[in-house]
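Sequence only, no structure available. Ideas?
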Amino acid sequence: MKTVFALLLLVAGALANVTASASEWPNKPVKIVVPFGAGGQSDVIARLIAKSLGETFRQQFIVENQGGGGTVIGTRNVARAENDGYTLMISGMSSHVLSPAMNKDLGFDPIQDFTHIAYLGGSPTIFVVHPSSGVKNFEDFLRWTKSTEGGVQYVSPGVGSGGNSVAEFFASKAGIKLVHVPHRGGNTAVADLVAGHVKMGSLTWSTAREHVSAGTLIPVGISSGERVAGFDQIPTFREKGFPDVVTTVWLAVSGPRGMSADLTQKLNSAVNKALEQPFVRRHLEQDAFDVRLLSPVQTTGYFQSEHAKWVPAMRAALGTKP
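Reply:
I predicted one. Tokens follow.
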């Protein structure tokens, strides 16, 4: 009996320590990994969310850019991190759907090896061209790509990014050839395009918006379901005869597999609160984000449905074996 009692005390003590640990979180800075270089959409959104979470929990939330490998490096590092809530990431379409479609040897499972905490929303992908290309509209764009021997070069935020994947998917549907010039983030990609080093870009709307407004880049088509408010001159791919090219480069917050339900729910509530903050909402609205406040279960379900929809489609478009 004494032995049993001692064991019960040990178990009770362990449970108390786990409870105390969860209730005390965060008692040190929390790292938010962005699997892209600085300056792109994921990085900007991460810093907005980090600011709000820092105010909510009165603790530092530090954004760390871990670009490279088409989002694989940063994503793999998070998959292998401790599940104590001190390592999170900005996950989403690029890291958990498109990279798996292009590369089967990632070193992690995009669904099973993560705790998917909260959905943030997504911005559409836009095709833009440098004014020196001579392209003025969507029809010009198709003629240009079809008549250019060897294909038209385009920049994107990187291999496996939404820009890369939408461009390749569109090319397979339109019967054109596009040649990828990858970058380590949207910031450097758009700089290369504006400088005229490459004549076409496949970028998130948030990355290209200011340049479209200024006239330094010419828009030819966008992947949103409807035209973007205030930019009615930009046609959607769907209305131009490509109904399958409707998607957003959506983002979420995830952590390593096995995070506690209490901590996951605490973070989900705080992220959803952040999405309703005026300074966050203003930024997301101007970037045409489709913000939805989802629970952890709903967020995980969204990952699963997007994976089931886009992985086979992208592998077919790229000729990648299942």
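Residues 5 and 11 are 10 Å apart (CA to CA).
Hope that gets you unstuck.
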